[in-house]
C-alpha cells in the first residue's frame, strides 16, 4: 500500500504537470471507484482548472475553484501521467484529459487500480481543514504532543491515522526499530525522551524515503511508472528470519493491529513499566525505565 513517502512522490510528480491545466473531460472505464454520485462528480469537476495539488496523510488533494477532488490509492492505486495517444493499460478506471492555455495538446492523468480498494471523492471545502497532524508536515513537537496522551500500543496508535496521518506498516516498523521501541509497548509506558526520539526517527525515515522516491514492493510506481529506491535501505520490514542489522539476533514477525509486524526482540525491548513522570514529587513512587 502506498504510504506517505510514496504519495508525496506522486504529488511532487503531479504538481508541475497538473497546476494551471483544466480538466476537459473525464472518461470512466469499467466500474468506477467513486464515493458519491457519479454524474454529479463528473459535472462538478469538468472544465475546472487545477489550482494546487496537496497531500494529507496518504490522501492526494486536487484543489479546484469549486471543489477538492480527494484520491486515496488504497492498496494498488496508481496515478499515471500519459499522452492521450498512448495505449491504456488494463485495470485503468478513469481518464482525466487536461489541457493548458498555452499548450493545447491534451495530456491524461490515468487512474489505475488492480484491486479496487482506492477511492475518489469530492470534498466540501469546509471539510478539508480539520486534520490530525501529517507525519511529514508537522513539527516534532506537534507529533510528540499528538502521541503523548495516548494509551494505545505504539503500533496501533501509529497505524490508526487518528493521531498522526500518513504512516503505514513499512515506516512504522522501520521507525520503531530505529528508535529501539517494541511495537507492542503501550505509549503510556514509554518515557518522554524515548517517545521524542521515536518522533525524530519517524521524521528521518520519511525524509530518507522521500528523497529516494519511496518504497516499491509490487504495485507502487511514480507518475511516470518509475519505482522507488528505499527498499534497499529497509532494516527490518519484510526481513523476518534474517539477522538484525544491529545485533545479529533473528528478526521476528508477529501480528499486531491486524498487520504483520517485524522487530528485533533484543534491540526493541518491551516498555512494561509505567513511564517516569516529569513531575519531581512523583519520582521515587514510580519506577521508570
Ligand atoms: Zn537487534
How many helical stretches?
6
General form: elongated
Report mean pLDDT, rounded to a whole number: 89
Largest sheet: 5 strands, mixed
Helical content band: 10-25%
Structural account:
The chain has 289 residues and is α+β, with helices and mostly antiparallel strands. The protein is 24% helix and 21% strand. It has helices at 4-18, 38-45, 140-147, 154-159, 169-179, 192-211; strands spanning 22-28, 34-35, 52-56, 59-63, 68-72, 77-83, 92-99, 107-113, 119-123, 252-256, 259-263. The strands form 3 sheets. It has a 5-stranded mixed sheet with strand order 2-9-5-4-3, covered by helices on one side. The chain has a 4-stranded antiparallel sheet with strand order 1-7-8-6, covered by helices on one side. A hairpin with a 4-residue loop joins β4 and β5. α3 crosses α6. The relative contact order is 0.14. The model is unreliable at 277-289 (pLDDT under 50). It binds zinc ion.
